[in-house]
What we know:
By secondary structure, this protein is mostly helical. It has helices at 3-12, 31-40, 48-56, 66-80, 87-96, 103-114, 116-126, 136-146, 153-170, 188-200, 212-215, 221-233, 256-265; strands spanning 133-134, 173-174, 179-181, 238-242, 245-249.
Amino acid sequence: MTVENKHNKKLERLGFSFERGGVHTARTMMLAELRALLSFVDVADAPRAVYLEAIQTTNCLGKRSGKTRTLTFRHLADLYALNPGLLVFRALRFFWQRDVDGQPLLAALCVYSRDPIFRATAPFILNIQEGTTVSREAMEEFIDAREPGRFSNATLQSTARNINSSWTQAGHLTGRARKRRVRAVATPGAASLALLLGYVSGLRGELLFKSDFTRLLDCSYQKTIELAEEASRRGWISLKRVGQVVEVLFPNLITAREMEWLREQN
Length: 266
């Protein structure tokens, strides 16, 4: 097993996913469904079985058939884990009601840590200049160029459409038929989750503010610092700054057992 694979295996214990598949061949990041589900199941530490019952039995998302309800649960579980025992989902729930404006980016950060196709398209989207049109065909070309011939034409089209829709839900694109690049709205909660994901991935100090996760915030290094300082004032995270030395800790989010895993990892 390579060093990267070992690292990924340890991150999977915290809720990351590195499976080859991905929900985006069939669905988007399903922000509307996630909002409805987390509003219906309003107990933060509810076990996964409660989410299954809410979707499958109570039909809180208003799906027409049992099969559709089953698929919806499966897709949402793949995207967000729906398991408070996993740090990625537990952190998502921690910030979800505390930072309502940050929900689109909170969801996107969670999906980024769990869906490989969405994760792979991040550099493509984030490097596009504001105001530039982003077509489905351009996304198709990008996806196909990474693994030529992996997807049929029909699957490639639907995947590109779903990916562009997810980036629209996240706030990085706008428009329906004709999408263009816009700047996402970063918030203290979203910045905190981005920093947390970088922290458990092994980053410390200033590097936390320059990670692939904080790039999703779509804002400057200084703005990310300011958002983290606001989150620290609210008691969500702990931020200490002395000159150029920055320390970020997450006493409300990382359990003692998870800290042991992180120490082993480092």
